[in-house]
């Protein structure tokens, strides 16, 4: 009897805690939701910058190793090592390229959610919103002037840069195995990179988001651009 009473007494605090948690969830205001979305977006951005440094270091070290062996007097005795370095360089560059694409995908998602929260939850007018407005679209937007700014997506530049580096590693790797001309190797490297990125992205490296609710927020092209 005493044991049953003890169990009842122990269960009461836990039930109170659950109730308090539910009450706190109900108190999750639109502004708190807005701040949480921005914090999540910034956390994702900071993590991506940390991961990028690992790719930069790895690719730089591999290229220095490749150049050192290739320019040595007895480089013919390092054929296996050179091929291994080129293979690792291509794989790491391909993963870097996929990371850039993944970051852009998630960044657009967070920006869209923030825009939607400003519009639907906070009920802000377009001119009062933060992530939807622009101070002056034409100021410093000059694609010809070498010392002026321009409306260019830095995320897309990063994706393109990683794609070019991946293709370059692919060309160096293919030259070790094929005797074809440069144009043929160049085309094979591009096709191979696109094909490998599609296979890895669709099968192994894809985020599991099928269980996430899809809000199907209408996105306007002019509201989707992100750095």
Summary keywords:
mainly alpha, transmembrane, membrane, 227 residues, disordered N terminus, elongated, 5 helices
How would you characterize this protein structure?
This protein has one domain. Helices cover 67% and strands 0% of the residues. It contains 5 helices and no strands. The N terminus is likely disordered.
* Structural class label: mainly alpha
Tell me the distance between the termini: 66 Å
Series of secondary-structure elements, N-terminal to C-terminal = HHHHH
Strand content: under 5%
Helix % is 55-70%
Indicate how many domains the architecture comprises: 1
Which residues sit in consecutive blocks of at least 5 with pLDDT less than 50? 1-12
Rg (CA only)? 26 Å
State the major sheet: none
Give average pLDDT, whole number.
84
Tally of DSSP β-strands = 0
Count of individual helical segments: 5
Global morphology: elongated
InterPro entries: 8xMP
Keywords: Membrane, Transmembrane, Transmembrane helix
Pfam family, one: 8xMP
